[in-house]
Amino acid sequence: MILHEGYIYTVERTTKTKSIFRCKNRDCKARCHTSLSMDAFLSLPTSHCRAPQPDGVPAIQLENEIKANAAITDESTSTIIHSALRTYPLSAAGQLRKNQSLMLMIQQQRTTETVDVDGHLPEKLRKTYHDEGFILHEDK
Which keywords does UniProt give here (predicted)? Predict the structure, then answer.
């Protein structure tokens, strides 16, 4: 994503020489082109059909923070949400997703452990959080 002058742009497509972004609001036709490294505009954004919405930026940053924490920690869903919300500005509270939606987003980021080719549990699930043996005997 790119934030420019209060507007948020998402990648529409990428060519061999540039990335093409479009306004996050799909009713808007505004586009801009950047270099592949996204360090410079090759063409500045075209005009928008609406006013900028800078209040949406904190909500996107919060969602990205929640997704990153969900992928790398084993903390509970509510702990991840509460720690992310501690720094969220009250002025942008209207842009925030509902709690149930944030919880679902966390669940979608987490990977599910599966059995290996021999039908055995992965090593991570064979131990408790205190690194004690959890599985005493395993057979088919």
Answer: Metal-binding, Zinc, Zinc-finger
